[in-house]
Amino acid sequence: MTLQSPSTDLTSFEGKVAVVTGGSRGIGKAVCDELIRRGAKVVIGAISDKGREVAKQYNKEAGKKVAVFLRTDVSRYDDNKALFQLAENEFGGVDIAILNAATCDNADNLFSPLDDKLEERIFNVNAVGLIKSSKVAILHMAKRGGGSIVCTSSAAGFYSVPALIAYVATKHAVIGYVKSCTFLPEVCNVRVNAVCPSFADTTFMDNVKTIDGAPEPFYDFVDTVPTVPMSVIIDGVFKYLCDNTANGKTVMAYPTGIEVIEAPEWHYSLLTDDSLKAQDIYLKKAIPHSKQQLSRALERYEKEQKERPI
Ligand SMILES: NC(=O)c1ccc[n+]([C@@H]2O[C@H](COP(=O)([O-])OP(=O)(O)OC[C@H]3O[C@@H](n4cnc5c(N)ncnc54)[C@H](O)[C@@H]3O)[C@@H](O)[C@H]2O)c1
């Protein structure tokens, strides 16, 4: 089945369909506001039911259905599939995915209790959940002829924050994932990029606490650091949504504005004459190979949708 996209050119957002995880408040909600302002339709997936009210308000203001909400836990494939299928059922397909849902709870330090749940939950939402959302997003976008994914990582995806070790590791993981999407534009016309805000003025860190309740000196420091205006984060998101050439890129959002962070090139010691020749052959094979795998993945997904509709 092929769903026709009006266009994958995202210089205009009128009529485009965007799935936004974590769109019920904070940064995700600000991105939804801007998408709606530019004429897009939004499908909000979040763990908190507050997103229902947000969607209702957009519809009320527009005088027609421009938004829907589904309670979603991004750590579960079934929830992600239901969210993207809702976008297809309500608005005909998916052009944009803003993968923004994350938690900072259990972001504790090196000396927290040796409890499996502590690190597992934060990884399952912030890193594994984002990968699950994007794998589902890519299938829906591939069917439509292309799309653009922007992931919310963090300045913590590059910096050291000893008070938030597990959180920091999840945000580094997001950067690694985004960089690994190298061939996607050639395979299915989908682009994946990341925005990395520094501290923003949201309630994100309100629930972070040390397990034993002892005060964490880091938070006294955080209170002194200037926050990044929401408008700068929105600039970063729309920079990548609109730039048809950007893929696997990361942009920092600082209080002073956005700054692109370039990944290092492969080190010269890894690139011998032999490995360069082999790399050429690999690059020629990689795209047809990935196209074949995508086609099998789409068949599997469509069969599953027919046999076990969500
Ligand atoms: N606030 C900051 O200082 C800051 C800085 C850098 C990066 N970020 C990143 O920005 C993104 C948004 O954060 P925010 O500041 O708007 O926080 P927020 O707490 O206001 O919003 C988080 C959103 O994620 C949703 N969410 C949480 N767990 C979920 C799950 N399992 N499944 C689905 N949805 C889930 C929540 O319902 C909410 O809508 C996050 O990825 C965060 O890591 C925030």
How does this structure look, described?
It contains nine helices and eight strands. Helix 3 (77-91) runs parallel beside helix 4 (116-144) and helix 4 (116-144) packs parallel to helix 5. It has helices spanning 26-37, 50-62, 77-91, 116-144, 165-179, 184-188, 218-222, 230-242, 273-307, and strands at 17-21, 41-46, 67-71, 96-99, 147-152, 190-197, 250-254, 257-261. It has 310 residues and is of the alpha/beta class. It is globular and about 55 Å long. Mean pLDDT is 93; it is low at 1-7. 41% of the residues are buried. The two termini are 18 Å apart. It has two domains: 17-263, 3-Layer(aba) Sandwich (Rossmann fold); 267-310. An eight-stranded mixed β-sheet has the order 3-2-1-4-5-6-7-8, sandwiched between helices. Helix 2 (50-62) links the parallel strand 2 (41-46) and strand 3 (67-71). The structure holds nicotinamide-adenine-dinucleotide (NAD). Nicotinamide-adenine-dinucleotide (NAD) binds at residues 21-22, 24-28, 46-48, 72-75, 100-103, 125, 129, 152, 154, 197, 199-200, 202-204.
* Cα radius of gyration in angstroms: 20 Å
**Tally of domains:** 2
Which CATH class of the largest domain is shown?
Alpha Beta
Number of helices in the DSSP assignment: 9
What do we call the CATH topology of the largest domain?
Rossmann fold
Helix content percent band? 40-55%
The count of strands amounts to 8
Distance between the termini: 18 Å
The small molecules bound here are: nicotinamide-adenine-dinucleotide
Q: What is the N-to-C succession of helices and strands?
A: EHEHEHEHEHHEHHEEH
Shape: globular
| Proportion of residues in β-strands | 5-15%
Looking at this structure, what is the CATH superfamily of the largest domain?
NAD(P)-binding Rossmann-like Domain
Biggest β-sheet: strands ordered side by side in the sheet: 3-2-1-4-5-6-7-8
Mean pLDDT: 93
Largest sheet: 8 strands, mixed
Class per helix and strand makeup: alpha/beta
Uncertain runs: 1-7
Based on the coordinates given, report the CATH architecture of the largest domain: 3-Layer(aba) Sandwich
InterPro entries: NAD(P)-bd_dom_sf (IPR036291), SDR_fam (IPR002347)
Pfam family, one: adh_short
Family: Belongs to the short-chain dehydrogenases/reductases (SDR) family.
Keywords: Oxidoreductase
